[in-house]
Amino acid sequence: MDDYEFEHLVADLWELQGWDADVEQQSADAGVDVRATQSSPYRRKVLIQAKRYSDDNPVTGPNVQQYAALKQQEPDTDESIIVTTGRFTGSAEDRAKDLNVKLIDGKGLVDLIGGLGA
């Protein structure tokens, strides 16, 4: 699965949870891979960064800092989320807590896929 297919997988997972999800065009994504919105029970919008990484190439604290800015790129954005096939470093987890970025690592992704029967 290439990066673009992984972004579509992430969008499909959000759609299975009742969101409208769109994969951004690679040339114009400005760091946003998936934009997901939900209108019920109230309007919410999340911007998702999808990283197809191995455990040998974890998402780091500086990566989280960079992606935390996704929320400021668009009005009415409620959350920034990073989904990876790999893992997050300890500093990434600390930065995510400080910056209110939600993280889903490879194990969490497998759990999500299993929980949705995808």
Molecular structure report:
- This protein has 118 residues and is of the alpha/beta class.
- It has one domain: Trna Endonuclease, Chain: A, domain 1 (3-Layer(aba) Sandwich).
- A five-stranded mixed beta sheet has the order 1-2-3-4-5, with helices on both faces.
- α2 packs parallel to α4.
- The longest helix has 14 residues.
- It is globular and about 35 Å long.
- The mean pLDDT is 91.
The total count of strands amounts to 5
Neighbour order of strands in the largest sheet: 1-2-3-4-5
Describe the global form: globular
Instruction: Classify the fold: give the CATH topology.
Output: Trna Endonuclease, Chain: A, domain 1
Q: What kind of sheet is the major sheet? A: 5 strands, mixed
Report the structural category: alpha/beta
Order of helices and strands: HEEEHHEHEH
GO biological process, one term: DNA restriction-modification system
Keywords: Endonuclease, Hydrolase, Nuclease
Organism: Halogeometricum pallidum JCM 14848
Protein name: Restriction endonuclease
Element layout with pairings:
Elements: H1 3-16, E1 20-23, E2 34-38, E3 44-51, H2 61-68, H3 70-73, E4 79-84, H4 90-99, E5 101-104, H5 106-116
Parallel strand pairs: 3-4, 4-5
Antiparallel strand pairs: 1-2, 2-3
Helix pairs in contact: 2-4
